[in-house]
Amino acid sequence: MYKFDEEIVEISKLKPCPVRVTLQTDKLLRDLVSVARTRPEHIEPISVAVLGDSMYIANGHLRARALEEAGRNSTSAYLVTAKEISDVVRLHIELNRRGSINPLKMIDAVRFLQKHNAAQSVPKRYLELAEKNIYPKVRARWDEFLADASKRYSSVELPLHVVERIAQFESEKEQLTGTAVLTDSLLPVRESKFVFPAPQDLEMILRTIAPRYHEKKATVFEPKESEKGWPKINREEAEELVRNTPHDSLVQCSCGKKLLLNTKTRQVSSVRDDAKNRCIRLEEEGQSEPVYAIPEGTVNFLGVESGDSLRFLKIRSKKELAKFASSLKDGVPLRLVMISPR
């Protein structure tokens, strides 16, 4: 818990938060400037993080700017002591959690906190989004769109699910196309705001520009004949399933569990979860694109869930093992499974 003390501070001495995550519009600023000129006492106190001799605005950037534009030199503020610069960013995120958050700025904030080993309190969805790649040109298009929207509408919001869906496209071209389709198709519900499609509607819109998976090769693996005790996979249906997903292969284990595998990212998704599953076998598509499946006990040990990715390393000598060990950072949680030659 943070302890706040209210004081009067000079606006000129305040610094902005190193990474700001909120979306604000020109109309909101104009309205606040009008209030600041005529009824400044109605402006709520801002929140300020005090770090040494510096004071950072944690919440209330727009209010501070409005007061300054209205000719006010000072403002009422709640002060809270910060020990690290990461505390300033975390406080900013926490105090603005119910506001209009820009997911793109949240990516910046998460990466900032990760550099300072302080991302523990960040919601999981934002942590996962920060691990994905959004190309610089795509980011620039969204920043330009939001900057323009903030001038035209009184309320602007970029839902998290929209950015998550754009990030699913692997190539820059696909991300740019998806961005263009979305931004060009948006019509304001009323003059004050526009609304993005809900997740299901968004999926229908972007499906038309998704990679044509039906043109790619689909690989289906099954256990050997002697090990089968489950209904045979309908190969035509299985290949169609693979072609219409980002995955490349479908593996049916001897236990009957089906797994979709992406040979590029090693991402695994369950098609059907079988409670009796105790054994998953290793099959290979070829040395160039191996498909891995690992024992269920190992999956449980690693804490792997559907959609997670695994990292495979070939270590051929003690020297390579020592090099791998030296690359690990202190404090990083790690679960390691070593498979030795037969």
Number of E strands: 11
First CA to last CA: what distance?
55 Å
Order of the strands making up the biggest sheet: 1-5-3-4-2
* Series of secondary-structure elements, N-terminal to C-terminal: EEHEEHEHHHHHHEEHEHEEEHH
Can you characterise this structure?
With about 350 residues, this protein is an alpha/beta fold. It has three domains: about 5-100, Conserved hypothetical protein from pyrococcus furiosus pfu- 392566-001, ParB domain, CATH 3.90.1530.10; about 135-210, no CATH class; about 215-315, no CATH class. The chain contains twelve helices and eleven strands. The chain has helices at about 25-40, 60-70, 85-95, 105-115, 125-130, 135-150, 160-165, 170-185, 200-205, 235-245, 295-300, 320-325; strands at about 5-10, 15, 45-50, 55-60, 75-80, 190, 195, 220, 250, 260, 270. A five-stranded mixed sheet has the order 1-5-3-4-2. The chain has a four-stranded mixed sheet with strand order 8-9-10-11, with helices on one face. The protein has a two-stranded antiparallel sheet with strand order 6-7. Strand 3 and strand 4 form a beta hairpin. The longest helix has 17 residues, at about 135-150.
Kindly list the characteristics that best describe this protein.
Conserved hypothetical protein from pyrococcus furiosus pfu- 392566-001, ParB domain, 4-stranded mixed β-sheet, 37% helix, alpha/beta, 12 helices, 5-stranded mixed β-sheet, 342 residues, 3 domains, 14% strand
